[in-house]
Amino acid sequence: MNGPASITVAIAEGDEQFLGQLEDWLANEPTIEVVGSVHDGDSAVALARRAKPDVVLMDMDMPGRSGIDATEMITTLLPGTGVILISTDGAPDSLRKAMIAGARQFVLKNTTKQEVVRTIREVHQSTVARRVLGGPAVSEAPRGPSSAKDSAARRQGEIVAVFSPKGGVGSTTVAVNVAAVLRKDHNLQVALVDGSLPFGDIAVFLDMAPNRSIMDLVVNPEQIDDEDGSGALSTHQSTGLKVLLAPPRPEMAEMVTADQLRRSLSLLKESFEFTIVDTWSCLDERVLTILEIADRILLCFTLDLPAIKSAKVFLEVSELLRFPPEKITTVLIKSTGTQGIEVRDVEATMGRPVGAQISHDSRTTSRCINEGSPVVLGQPGTIVAADFRKLAGLLLTEEQEALAKTKKLGRFGLFAKS
Predict the structure, then answer these.
(1) CB neighbour list of residue 213: distance below 8 Å, 6 or more residues apart
(2) 63 in helix, strand or coil?
(3) Homologous superfamily (CATH) for 152-416
(4) Which part of the chain has CATH 3.40.50.300?
(5) Which of 44-53, 70-79, 218-227, 316-325 has the least mean pLDDT?
(6) I need a surface site. Which of 7, 51, 219, 309 has the fewest CB within 10 A?
(7) Element containing residue 11 per DSSP (H, E)
(8) For residues 359 and 326, is the Cβ–Cβ distance under 8 A?
(9) pTM for this structure?
(10) Are 94 and 86 in contact, with CB atoms under 8 Å apart?
(11) Whether domain 7-133 has CATH 3.40.50.2300
């Protein structure tokens, strides 16, 4: 048996040969303790309830109760346990089912020992962070005795995640322009984060040289502080935005963990009135972390059936994740080729009104992207620029609007410095 700091793991695997392999892989890991192994879903639930492990390795296809059903039951009964689903099938539909059931990660059976161990540690770290977040939010943790005046001075900013479950709808354009409006029109301190880690485009959209990036923060999450964060940010000269760029190469994205993102965004929240985070169309652990800690989510979609279907599925997932309905604002990005689909039909399908609409103007948008300038700066008099301003306005509270009018800047920490 390992020491008290061990990660306790239960294994539920229908394939006896692969079960033995998993047991062998984990037997000599100094900080992992296997507390039991079973061959079917019902036994997996019973084992989890009895042992309350930190992590469950769950076969997706097992005799009796399926891995999906067992995962849903375990995550409901034991929210402090992280489930990793294992499957021979890596299809997107399988991943979607895993995430809806509450799994924290999804790995294939042709994986390696190193990948399994890394995933166990990552899921455990993330689950521990979620336990902390079950009380006061990490970013809102008290820092010792303080007066009301000191508390006001440390008032938290807002994290806004821009997300679309279907790629190519224009989420990055939304993120860049909303951030630019909040900074230029409202005089707010704004950070723009390229959370589309594998293929982020914000550097291209803003014509910025990627001299710094989120890779400067790839350290132990507990070691990330204001000084690290300010050194990783780049300044966009035309807007004054502070920008945290994506890794310069796609393969580097795997080095960025969910906990590093959580810590980095928490520091930005303390330092900026708004932190706008662009994401990518994937519900892996890192994107789920961004969506979870965000104060608002802009759910972007276009007026075509695949995008509408994907947005509706995400709304269903958000209910299972217990996101408050008011946390999500649906953003319709209009495009050509959508005849026959009306906004009212979309609202009936989604069961909620469309929160904002961005006009179709591909010529203006493409021109501004190619010139490396936000639409609201490059073509400020266009209808699409006006739509971005309306969308940004939806994010402002009365207090923030008053703050912008009085230009009470400089009350934030190191991140806000040029």
Answers:
(1) 232, 244, 245, 246, 247, 248
(2) coil
(3) P-loop containing nucleotide triphosphate hydrolases (3.40.50.300)
(4) 152-416
(5) 218-227
(6) 219
(7) strand 7-12
(8) no
(9) 0.62
(10) no
(11) yes
